[in-house]
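To assess whether ligand presence alters the predicted conformation, the chain was also submitted together with 6-O-phosphono-beta-D-fructofuranose. Input:
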Amino acid sequence: MLTSGGDSPGMNAAIRAVVRTGIYYGFEVHGIMRGYQGLIEDDISKLDSRSVANIIQRGGTVLKTARCKEFFDYEGRKQGYQNLKKRGINGLVIIGGDGSFRGAVQFSQEFNIPCVGIAGTIDKDIYGTDFTIGFDTAVNTAVEAIDKIRDTMDAHDRIFVIEVMGRDAGYIALHSGIATGAENILIPERATNIDSIVESLRETEKRKKLVNLIIVAEGEKFGGAYEVQRAISEKMPDAEIRVCILGHIQRGGAPSCLDRLIASRMGYHAVECFLEERYNVFVGILNNKMHYIPLENAVKTKGKINEEWLKIVKILAS
Ligand code: F6P
């Protein structure tokens, strides 16, 4: 088992579940350090039940993680395969996001190693699951921070542009923005229209609504929070606009109850996949039921933002 890509709160709960369920069913479970990097470097050790004690409540990942460039090369993947074979390891659990799943698809096709994925990313940008491990904690962290900013924003009658994480997807922005009453939410899935933002700011100004919250997803295409601030300031030179980038604070901290729960369920079902010979899938949850989505589909398909949510933002911000 390895954790790969950006860490997410709840990964430890998934590691614990895989180890303990694996042992329960008679498997030997090995932990690979630093994702695919440790696979290539043979940084692998056997895990027992006690080795995952006292981690369910901790953020980060005890297996550590990395974004491994060498795994993009065939030679790197071959080295990884040889390390697994040498140790008699014949299956791989990958806890990570779509980049990590892409690596798994290639690896399993080239070397016939059965892979099972567990969706772990704060971005929630994996097709075929309602939840990914870490998303709930990350949005709650963002909401807590935005609420605090709102206090000072309100005291000064200011406009705030707050950037949240989400490289290719606007889920963190959309969820945290609706939950904090944002007036505008800018996401990668939709082109940003500065004129319409300015229009809405002028309109609210007329109604003496001076406080305005704009949430920007990191991957938004106009250029991010500072660029949005600059463009609005150009058209509204008298407006007091401040920027706050929440950054990696969203990736850390104790996992929420929901993240611990889905991580535990996904970890348990990932082991069951090996029992049932259900390979090269990832474990997702749809309508509170476990689903097994081919890793290939997960990396080829993108989830769609629900357009109605953007309508809700507009109506509720009036
Ligand atoms: O894991 C997802 C994510 O947090 C994205 O939201 C963000 O763009 C990226 O990782 C940041 O990655 P890094 O920590 O490598 O800078």
